Structure formats: structure tokens, C-alpha cells
Fold:
Amino acid sequence: MTKKVLRNPEYFEILDEDGLVYKGCSQEWYKKKWQKMAGCGPTTASNVVIYSNKNKTSKNGALDIMNELWNYVTPTLKGVNTTKIFYEGFMKYADEIGRSASFKVLDIPKEKERRPSYETMFDFIESSLDNDVPLAFLNLCNGEEKCLYKWHWVTIISLEYEEDNCLAAVEILDECMVKKINLPLWYETTTLGGGLVSFSLD
Structure:
């Protein structure tokens, strides 16, 4: 079994005033009901920014980042339901705070015949992690993978696989926890697809 992991996963550890340690941000930290319901996109974007800052942060500091990202990766009535809404908002955020950013995107369409191959998706994830870049993952339908919510963004932080790549799992940050999902199971059973976005932020 081979595992590719971000070099400094401890950057995702967020401490609150009571000494509790969270793994990444939670959309439940937003104050307004709509933000709590639809805030997975800006929350995932915040995880990417926090990792790129290369140091740990407090819960209050993380919430400041989340509130700022909300103004750029802003949910529509359907949420942040496309990779384009996500990366265009994120790039505008990076530009306005004066940070150099680039991105790569891999859309996984609803129609199976239009999707990139599983190997292409696998390589996209592996390449990003090899470059120490977390991935934003949009899941519109979780299929038979029960550890994912539908219509939801999460942050991919590791990839674990057997030699033939067919038996693979990714670790994600969601709800301040690390969860593991079966990558080929999601790919084969999702009916709406989703997408992956990999950002480099200097």
C-alpha cells in the first residue's frame, strides 16, 4: 500500500479558546443560517488558504478567513455547484489580497461517456499531493459512497492505493474531521459527477 500525504497536515489543526483541536474548518461556524447551509464551498476554500499560509491558526482566525472567502466563493441559490464558480471566486480573492495564484481543474461530468478516465482523475489527485497542494473536491452525488454528503465541497489531503491504483482511498477534511472515502466506488456510482480544483497560492 502506497500513501501520498501533504507534507504538513498539522497546518489544518485549528485551536479554539478552550484548547479543542479541529481538523480544518466547519461551515457550522458561520453565523447565518444560509451560510451554515450553503457554506461548504467557501469553507473548503478557507482550508486551502490556511494550508498555504504555512502555520497553524486559531478558530477565530479561521473564521475571519471563512468570512472573507464568502465574499468571493459565494453560493448561488444552488450553492457553489460548479468548479467555475469556485475557481473564479478564489482567483479573484487571491488577486485582491495581492497573492500569486494558479489553478488546475478537472471536471467530472454527469454523463459517463464524457468523463475523464478514472486513471486521469487518480493522476490529477496524485500530482497535486506530490506538489504539496490540497485539492478542493466537489461531489454532486455521492453514489454508493456513504461517507460523503451530496452537493458538497470537501478538501482532499491524502491518497492511499494499491499498486494497480484500482483500490484507492482519499482522506478528506469535512465537519472538522478526517474522513476516508473509496475513490473508485465514488467514480463508478456517482450519477451527477463533480470536479476537482488544485490551487497553488504563493
Observations:
- The beta strands are 2-5, 13-15, 21-23, 57-58, 101-108, 135-139, 152-161, 168-174, 177-182, 194-201.
